[in-house]
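ok posting inputs for the 6-O-phosphono-alpha-D-glucopyranose job
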Amino acid sequence: MGFLIAGVVGIATVALAWLQAQRERRIDLEDLDRRMHLVTHQIKDSVHDALRRPESGTAKLLADQLEGHRRLLGFAVFGPDGRRIASGKAVAEFTEEMKPALLQALAGKSEAIATIRAQDTNLQVLATRLTNEDGALQGVLVAVHEMSHLDERAAMRMVHFAYWILLITFLLIILVVGVTWAAYERPLKNLAEWMRRLRTDNAPEAPPTGLPVALLASETERLAASFRAARLQVSTDSRSITRDHKLWTRERLRAQAVDCLQGGQLVVVSNREPYMHQLRDGKPRLIVPAGGLVTALDPILQACGGLWVAHGAGDADRQTADAGGRLTVPPDDGRYTLRRVWLSREEEQGYYYGLSNEGLWPLCHLAHERPTFRASDWDHYVEANRRFTAAILEEIGSSEATVLVQDFHLALVPHLLKLARPDIRVGVFWHIPWPNPEAFRICPWRAEILKGILGADLVGFHLQQYCNNFLDTVDRMVEARLDWDHFAVELGGRRSLVRPFPISIESWAERGVPLGDALTRQTAQLQERYKLDYGPIIVGVDRVDYTKGLPERLRAVGRFFEKYPQHRRKLTFVQLAAPSRTHLRRYRELIVELESLADEINWKFQAEDWKPIHFLVDHHDAATVHAFLRMASVCLVSSLHDGMNLVAKEFVAAKPEEDGVLVLSEFAGAARELSDALIINPYDTEQFADTIHAAVEMDVPERRARMQRMRQVVEEHNVYWWAATFLTELSATRTSDLRNSGQFELPKGLKTAGVHV
Ligand code: G6P
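and the output
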């Protein structure tokens, strides 16, 4: 390449120099012509006179005048017949060479000019025709000028010019190379050096700045984040509780928790309560609310004991708790205390339905639902967070405690808790995705929410990607110091670690669902009740939420029956749909939309005693969910965006015989761990329908192999493992004083309300 450039530069230099030399030679020639005309003109009259005399006298008369001076070699005079009459000494020898110009003048041309080569030099010849007053030819005057100096000058100029061009080209090359080095090579070299140091565990905090492409810069930051996370994970794992590969059980967690809590109390706080009482026919009926949070956290408290603070949302909640809002749960086997927090209708509307579910929920889930933010909702949100904090402080009094704050409803609680009790350990777990900073920045209270969360010593998400997004968001939206090496944030003298903890489940046996004969009887009842006597079923289990991709799922099931008619009357799709947040219009409308979609599909394909879709809207208890999952040969999870999705893991856990196929959305966090599921894009109906077909047709050995691997993941990484890793990491954090840090101000009006114990 270097030679090629040098070659091209060389050829171009020579060509340019040659062209320039030619141009200047032309100018010199014109100049020479002018001079020859001038000197010819000066002696022309004398020659005229001399030619009028007899020939012998002519030569004598002109003798001196025909001699040249310096480069003008001299003149020669020829008669009308072309004979030389007289000439200067120096030109006499060139008579032959003058002939072409002479002949032209004799032939009638008033003057003829020619360049001739003689005796290794170039001569310029100007022949001028001389006539008398009648126009008759008197003779021809020829001037001869030597030209070698012109050629020498041309050659010199060419060299000179080439020299300048080379110099300028050289300077240009230096300039281009310099600029390239400064703009590309140096930053890229720095980047490479930084990556090397990153690899060898010694990198500075941030990647080098000034990278030539913005995208490269942002990708580098992400790459660094992932790399550090992976390294951190490896080092954490190597010193961690997971090293021995022994399965995590309730007992093992309890022992680990005793170590971690060091005599302090374990407190879980969430909006949703694990046990809710609703009036049915005038009597309280116990409901275990659907949703991953309750599914995951209840076993932890059952194992460790402690306190769960949550909103008492059931209409029979007050009558089933004591005056302080407390009761022991599970009601038939009291293992821990549930403390209910009472909120007025208006508060619930603003804090839960408004800011939490119409604002933060769609903000964090990229499911094309526009978030709504109202200032009045925010005020309620702040007030509710204060109320939850006050309840926790009231319960723990002055004792030691570790508080696990759950989810997006309570983002301000960590900070409020630390304001009142800087000594307690606070962890927060965000059960839903954390979006990228561009998506999050539309929240009007983004800084307050971030600072609220950063009151915690440990901030947990399901996936590393959410941790990266969170740190990116903090980096751009609050004045905090990021420690990328340890995935930590320092704000107002406090430090919060940010870590992924993929949440999980306990086994079905531990949940006390019917097994063995009892399960067989239950299955038979369900089959009879729902007329499911057409062989295997495909199942879906969800809260009715627009993030779950339910219309997409029904459409794919419809397409499946349309495209593969051989499965009609042989397979049935059962969707267990738990109504959720029905106070919000969007959620009510979704149920109506889904029911009519199911009707449409059923109408299209149903036969006399078979309908393709059973859409069962109800609060199904754990036993029913388990029975359906156990019955199903295929389970569909089609979330448009989901923090984890525990139904996917529940299906795997419900398959001890290691048979069954999971079809799982690539946009659910669970897809990272359950890579043996058939992964789909729920927006792609055709691919989704084909994948259902592939799942139904999959041969037994492959089904088993996939299921075996997924079961191993779920068994090893069960919810006890999740809680143990979280508690262990939290217990290793340092707590520090947040009082007077001034990092988070309550909005006016609420400030004075403070946190009262
Ligand atoms: C998700 C959220 C939980 C919530 C659950 C059920 O899993 O992360 O915080 O409890 O949905 O929603 P709900 O509004 O009924 O509590």
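notes: The chain is about 50% helix and 20% strand. Residues 272, 289, 291-293, 407, 431-432, 543, 580-581 surround 6-O-phosphono-alpha-D-glucopyranose (CB under 6 Å).
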